[in-house]
Amino acid sequence: MIDLEKVIADTQSLISIDSQNPGVGEGECGAWVSRRLSDMGLTPTAMTVQKNRDNIIATVPGGDSPRLVILGHLDTVPIGEGWSVDPLGGEIREDKIYGRGACDMKGGVAVALGLLEALGTHNVTPAGDVVFVATVDEEAPDMAGAHHLVASDVLRPTDQVIALEPTGTKLRIAQMGLRWLTVKVTGKMAHAGRAHLGIDSAHVMARIVDRLKGHIEALPYVDDILGRPRFTCGTFHAGVATNVVPPTAEASFDIRIVPPMVIEDVIPMVDTIAHAVLRDFPGATFTIDGLGAPRPPVRAAEDAPIIRGLRSAYQSVVGSSLPQGDDDGHEAYTDASMVAALTGSTSCTVFGPGSTDRAHTADEFVPISDLELVSRVMWQMVFDWDVICRATTD
């Protein structure tokens, strides 16, 4: 079994290492993970993604069954303000571990480390290789770590991939598509007292935002797991002074889609809305630029070994079925999603400790009970892996 006390200690140690992105980055955190893996007797490999940013890969060799690939990212979002505890302290209160990255996702990384160590401690040869990949840059628009992992040809078509991201210990079998955009409107500067001589770029942008939001909310697409498409105008900046007609406005859009929409639909949709708005503002212009990597919607196959394995292991450990139905979807995009998008794999999923509601917040925490449950489920799944994979192919 996985040693829960070591998982707790590793979670605290990882939290204590600042790995904000953007910010100091993952270098120190990656070095710590490499040392931890080496202390287990494994031989980690560092694959350089960018300067001082390495994906760390370690493998416990197994039999001929499909490999289990466990993904865990090392970066966190910025710490931000509003904390009542030390965000790098790893403090335990009421059986919760607090700190930036506690649930997103240093707790998940600690579980993966615990699994690899337990296999060695108990001299268990898994039915298939167990591969752990600690990635960089998951929290950034480009998701460079996942892209590099796929481009490096480390993965195989038969790999069963899981990201131990925070899901509240529920299975996340599908994820919404996501496209970030930067839209810029150029109008015409004028004195506010002679506003009719200018073109108010802020007004134009506000119209685009309002019309786009209404359009997306009215789309007829409703996925049985993911629900409806969503739109957020995350930032909006315009103007140079209170008494000046703003010559430019810039906004960032977060657009999340569901099947049957495809990610290539997003920019043409925004372009159509913007052109329609600008017909009321002669002389104004606009541009649309993609921000980061396009992220199409993805969904794992019900009969994939990783899905069957998680459900079977959860049933064995808890005595009840994994939550299904509307709770199966996932709003956030993960490295597992990006791997699925880039490779076409339907054997990628998400299951892990902590709640998405606590990720990216002040006083982020992961419940110790979640760390224990995910550890037990992962151990059970690896223990039953040969039976699971044979049942899938029968």
TrEMBL record:
Keyword Zinc tagged: yes
Ranges of residues in domain Peptidase M20 dimerisation: 173-274
InterPro entries linked to this entry: Bact_exopeptidase_dim_dom (IPR036264), Peptidase_M20 (IPR002933), Peptidase_M20_dimer (IPR011650), Peptidase_M20A (IPR050072)
Pfam entry (one): Peptidase_M20
Gene Ontology MF, one: hydrolase activity
Keyword match Transmembrane helix: no
Cofactors named for this entry: Zn(2+)
Keywords: Hydrolase, Metal-binding, Zinc
Family: Belongs to the peptidase M20A family.
Protein's recorded name: Unannotated protein
